[in-house]
């Protein structure tokens, strides 16, 4: 929130989402004129109190936990018991409370799931999301100014993954936009692209600092890992890894392996003399055990810069 404000973003274009907002954070958002996406009835009460303390009319939207999920998602963020949002069945009473408190109602935030590569399932969930928003809008305490339907736009992580058919999704979104404009002329349809924009925009680089053998297997220890790539430990997800060099030689095959340690550990077979080499992970997972590319220059490691994230 502060980063967006410091970057010069207009406060009216910023929304503050996520469960567990502190009282201080809510006060800051209300004072700045940022839209607070309400995740619970308790949070609504805190926003009301913040408005009274600051003598301001808080801008709010309701985060809805829909009664459906985005199938085949990397993470389900809607449907059933969820920490995200307010159950759809309870939203009407929350809207009534917003009206009685005279808060500045902005709209709805409905996010069913993330990391999806199936255009047909994404289109289906987006259509259901618009249906739900239009139904809830009938109980809104004021004009609906935006409907945030979340994202779910996935990127390929594994070798057999296929890229999302963005054209198909775009055509369906255009139809959804037309429906929203016809029913709610003041409302904007908002989409969160998230990882679809930045997920493949860089390469993580670290240095091999040690090589050890245990139980007949060779491990390459790097100076970067879980303290930067939390998903490796949290989701037990391997990332494809290459050893970098200026001149490529025939590959030597090996594997990578997760580590519960703070540093990442690459697990390889037959990899002498790799201390000091750069290991680059291009931000894509490629399975539990994946090839590691090792490149040599005249049989010796290259001289390389300090580890960094590129």
Give a description of the structure.
With 310 residues, this protein is an alpha/beta fold. It is 28% helix and 22% strand. It contains 8 helices and 16 strands. Strand 2, helix 3 (41-54) and strand 3 form a beta-alpha-beta unit. Helix 2 (23-32) packs across helix 3 and helix 5 (119-137) runs parallel beside helix 6. It starts with a helix and ends with a strand.
Which descriptors apply to this entry?
310 residues, alpha/beta, 22% strand, globular, seven-stranded parallel β-sheet, seven-stranded mixed β-sheet, single chain, 16 strands, 28% helix
What is the compact description of this entry?
The protein is of the alpha/beta class and 310 residues long.
What shape does the CA trace take? Answer: globular
Main sheet overview: 7 strands, parallel
Look at the helices and sheets and give the structural class.
Answer: alpha/beta
Please give the count of helices.
Answer: 8
Helix content: 25-40%
Strand content: 15-25%
How far do the termini sit from each other?
25 Å
Listing every helix as H and every strand as E from the N terminus to the C terminus, the arrangement reads HEHEHEEEHEEHEHEHEEHEEEEE
């Amino acid at each position: 929130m502060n980063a967006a404000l410091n970057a010069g973003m207009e406060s009216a274009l910023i929304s503050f989402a996520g469960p567990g907002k502190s009282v201080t954070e809510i006060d800051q958002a209300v004072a700045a004129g940022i839209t607070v996406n309400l995740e619970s009835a308790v949070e609504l009460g805190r926003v009301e109190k913040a408005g009274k303390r600051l003598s301001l009319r808080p801008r709010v939207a309701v985060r809805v936990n829909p009664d459906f999920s985005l199938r085949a998602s990397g993470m389900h963020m809607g449907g059933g018991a969820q920490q995200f949002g307010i159950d759809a069945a309870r939203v009407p009473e929350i809207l009534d409370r917003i009206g009685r408190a005279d808060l500045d109602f902005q709209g709805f935030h409905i996010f069913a799931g993330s990391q999806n590569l199936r255009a047909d399932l994404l289109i289906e969930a987006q259509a259901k999301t618009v249906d739900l928003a239009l139904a809830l809008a009938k109980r809104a305490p004021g004009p609906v100014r935006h409907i945030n339907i979340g994202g779910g736009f996935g990127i390929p992580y594994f070798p057999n993954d296929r890229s999302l058919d963005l054209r198909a999704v775009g055509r369906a979104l255009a139809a959804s936009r037309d429906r929203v404009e016809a029913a709610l002329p003041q409302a904007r349809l908002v989409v969160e692209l998230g990882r679809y924009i930045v997920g493949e925009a860089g390469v993580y680089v670290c240095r091999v600092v040690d090589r050890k053998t245990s139980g007949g297997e060779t491990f390459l220890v790097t100076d970067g890992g879980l303290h930067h790539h939390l998903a490796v430990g949290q989701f037990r997800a391997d990332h494809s890894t290459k050893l970098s060099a200026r001149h490529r030689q025939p590959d030597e095959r090996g594997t990578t392996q997760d580590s519960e340690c703070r540093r990442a550990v690459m697990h390889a077979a037959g990899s002498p003399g790799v201390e000091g080499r750069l290991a680059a992970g291009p931000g894509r997972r490629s399975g539990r055990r994946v090839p590691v590319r090792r490149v040599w220059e005249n049989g010796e490691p290259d001289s390389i810069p300090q580890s960094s994230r590129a």
